[in-house]
Amino acid sequence: MSQTLIKKIADRSARIGVIGLGYVGLPLVIEFFKSGFSVTGFDVDKKKVEALRKGQGYIQHVDISPIISGLQGNGKAKKAAKQPSTRKGSFVPTNDFSRLKDMDCIIICVPTPLTKYREPDLSYVMDTTRTIARYLTKGQLIVLESTTYPGTTDQDMRTLLETTGLRAGKDFFLAFSPEREDPNNKDYRTGTIPKVVGGYTKKCLKAAVALYDTIVIKTVPVSSTRVAEATKLIENIYRSVNIALVNELKVLFDKMDIDIWEAIDAAKTKPFGFQAFYPGPGLGGHCIPIDPFYLTWKAREYGLSTRFIELAGEINTAMPDYVISKVIAALNDAGKHVKGARILILGLSYKANVDDDRESPTYRLMEELEDMGAKVSYNDPHIPEIKPSREFSKFAGRKSKNITTNYDLLLVATAHNEYMEIDPESIGVPIVDTRNLIKKKSTLVYRA
Question: What is the pTM of this model?
Answer without folding.
Answer: 0.91
